[in-house]
Amino acid sequence: MNTPADPLPVDPNFAARIRESFGRQKAMALIGAALGAVEPGYVEVALPFREDLTQQKGFIHGGILGMIADTACGYSAFSLMPADCSLVTVEYKINILTPARGC
User: Fold this and answer.
1) Residue 71 phi, psi dihedral angles, 5° rounding
2) How far apart are CA 48 and CA 51, in angstroms?
3) pLDDT in tens for each of the 103 residues of the chain?
4) Which of 42, 6, 11, 43 is nearest to 25 (CA)?
5) 17, 11 contact by CB (below 8 A)
6) Which SS3 state, helix, strand or coil, does residue 70 take?
7) Is 34:45 a contact under the CB 8 Å cutoff?
8) What pLDDT does 77 receive?
C-alpha cells in the first residue's frame, strides 16, 4: 500500500517528465536554479548564492526563496500524479523564521 512515508509514483517516467518540464522554466534559468534529486514525493531545487539575488541585508530575497519553494513543492506533488495531469500553484504560504547561510 502507498503511504506518505513511502509514496509510489503512478507514472514510472515521472523523473524524466519533471526534468523536461523544469528545463522549460525560464524563471528558474533566470535565477540560476538547478534541479537536484527527483524522487517520488521529493524534489530538490538548488540555487547557488549570487549577490544579485539578495535583499538589502545581503540574504537571498524572500521572493526568490518563494520561487524555489513553490517549484520544489509543485514538482514533488507532480511526481505522484498521472502522466496526463498538470498543475499550477493557486496559493502557498511560507514562513522564513531566520536568515540562513547554505553550505
Assistant:
1) -65, -50
2) 10
3) 455 667 888 999 999 999 999 999 999 999 999 999 999 999 999 999 999 999 999 999 999 999 999 999 999 999 999 999 999 999 999 998 888 766 5
4) 43
5) yes
6) helix
7) yes
8) 95
Residue 57 φ then ψ, to 5°: -100, 5
pTM of the model: 0.87
Cα dihedral 60, 92, 40, 16, rounded to 10, equals: -70
Q: For residue 39, which of 62, 59, 14 has the smallest C-alpha distance?
A: 14
The C-alpha atoms of residue 7 and residue 75 are separated, in whole angstroms, by: 14
Rg over CA atoms, the chain: 15
Report how far apart the first and last C-alpha atoms of the chain are (Å, whole number).
37
Task: Give the integer Cα–Cα distance in Å for 16 and 49.
Answer: 27
pLDDT score for 6: 72
Calpha distance 41→6 (Å, rounded): 8
